[in-house]
Fold:
Amino acid sequence: MSRSARFVCLIAASIPVVGLGLAGIQTVSLVLAGTAIAQQRVAPPSREAVQYSFAPIVRKAAPAVVNVYVRSRVQAFTSPFADDPWFRRFFGDQFGEPSERVMSSLGSGVIVSADGIVVTNTHVVKGRGETEIRVALADKREFDAKVITQDDKTDIAVLKMENGDGHFPFLEFEDSDSLEVGDVVLAIGNPFGVGQTVTSGIISGLARSDVGASDAQIFIQTDAAINPGNSGGALVDMNGRVVGINTMIYSKSGGSVGIGFAIPSNLVKVYAESAVAGRTVERPWLGAKLEVVTREIAEGLGLSRIAGAVVTRISAAGPAAKAGLEPGDVIMRVDGVEVSDPRAVFYRLTTKGVGQTAKLSMLRKGKGLETDLALVSPPKAGKDDVRNLSGPHPLDGARVSNILPGLADEMGLDDTEGVVILSVRNGSVARSLGFRPGDIVVEIGGKTIANVVDVEEALATRKRMWSVSVKRGERILQLNVPG
Structure:
């Protein structure tokens, strides 16, 4: 694999847009298997059977695929250094006068209910500053839209179009677990802003879990051509139902090379239904740390295959402990479906949902066993567990929390005690200094940090020189900055 290749999110950023109308461009390909043939998953019996057109499927699906236009108003400074908080400390806020700048971007989306619910990618709608979202349909109608929910980890966002008549064209979700490698699919979206485009291909792979940035991501792979601007568009089957939301490509140039990825419809459906119901999606708390089964681990445990998720740590009062899991157990299946790694395990648990029970099939010392796992919400952080930090110190703009059992699982932390950075506000001192979510605060000014109270006390007194140490992965990083 070339080092110059990279994974590309498919939003077409800063595309010049003259109006919000859709170009009437549609590309339709010929199918290599008829609808009935594809459903039966058998080889075409004759030459005539391979000459069916995609047109009936496109007529059904295309009206529900929309363009999503995002305009963000951000503050820009005349000086390239004037928006740096440390620069302003010495030269003042008036050195660089702020001016408003408008940033535009374009992506795609899919209407999934008659009342105007649209699913797309978080990276399509997530702007800086004040953001306006406009949705344009294939029939030239346009509507303002608001974000109901968005999740950075899964890259799923749910929108609601405003002032609609409640009779929007929409697509139904298909069970993405029913897909097989080789199934024919269509990708519909607005690549490069040229207008609605349809491309065909097949399912190239399932449950791809080593291509995303988050441990909550798992993908369907397809060779249907998708390009920047296709983000949030539909991947549909031969019944015209949504099997995935296109989100990312693997590319050396930024264009399609036949390796595209879509979020499975089963996960998208969970977020869409929860958003409509006014709920947030919670990933069930396992109460255990899982790791990928490597060749060395497989040999050490006597496994015949390098697959599954090995349990490396158990929280004493967590669901995994109550279900009888032990360190060294290797989870091979969830509800009868094979899982290749920890991401696949958490994907299965998330789509099953809190309040349900999942059946885990495991190997323990070479012997197979099964157990039922109760899917429960992670422990909630109390008001004394979380702090929003602000003031004349390096962690201004950071939100920190005591490391709770559920939080350690969610963020993939090895540490079960201490203080972790949950988020860092854009434009803050902490962001400019490079602090990240997941950093564990170890020391401030030589004081060892055990909880958020220690953080507040260490930051209470202004210092001429600040010293902050954080743990990031396996490394300890130390920052020294003037006070």
The mean pLDDT is 81. Residues 441 and 470 are 4 Å apart (CA to CA). Residues 1-280 form a domain with the Thrombin, subunit H fold (CATH 2.40.10.120). The two ends are 46 Å apart (CA to CA).
